[in-house]
Structures are given as structure tokens and as C-alpha cells.
Amino acid sequence: MASAVNPWNPASAPNAAGLLLGHFVASALTSASSEINEKNLEIELLKLEKDTADAVHASFLDEVSYSAK
Q1: Which superkingdom (predicted)?
Q2: In total, how many domains does the chain have?
Q3: How far from 37 is each of 26, 53, 68, CA to CA, in Å?
Q4: Could you give the CA distance from residue 69 to residue 62 in angstroms, rounded to a whole number?
């Protein structure tokens, strides 16, 4: 007795819809991963800007130049 192809089991037989769906899922995961990486880089940049903000603030630079005299 031959086994019937189960349309709910993607491993039973690849078809166009399954391949397309697989492509969309992989693409969405890649896109989501890229967005997460981009947001993490933005957060890191904001943290660096925050950590160095006092070093480039005009009043801080004035204090440094007066103390150097």
C-alpha cells in the first residue's frame, strides 16, 4: 500500500506553495534578525553618545580650558 501524501506535513512532498511559504518564512526571519541587529547598533551608538556627552558639552570644555590655565 502506497503512503498518501499528507498536505499538512511539509516533509511528505515539496510543492510550490510549501516552497514559497518556506521562502517567505526564511525571508521574514532574516529581515527580523537584521532589524534587531540594526536596533542593537543604534542602542550602542546612543549609549556611546550618552557616555561621551559631558566630554563634548560646551560648559565642560570651558571648565577644562580654565583649569588648564
Answers
A1: Eukaryota
A2: 1
A3: 16, 24, 42
A4: 11
Rounded CA-CA distance 39/27 in Å is 18
Cβ neighbours of 26 (radius 10 Å): 10
Give, for 39, the enclosing helix (H) or strand (E).
helix 16-56
In sequence order, what are the residues at sequence separation of 6 or more whose Cβ sits closer than 8 angstroms to the Cβ of residue 23?
none
- Cell readout for 58 is 560646551
- Structural domain includes residue 20: no
pLDDT tens by residue, 15-69: 888 889 989 999 999 999 999 999 999 999 999 988 887 666 666 666 655 555 5
pLDDT at position 19: 86
> Is position 13 within any domain?
no
What pLDDT sits at residue 26? 92
Which among 27, 48, 30 is positioned nearest to 38, based on CA atoms?
30
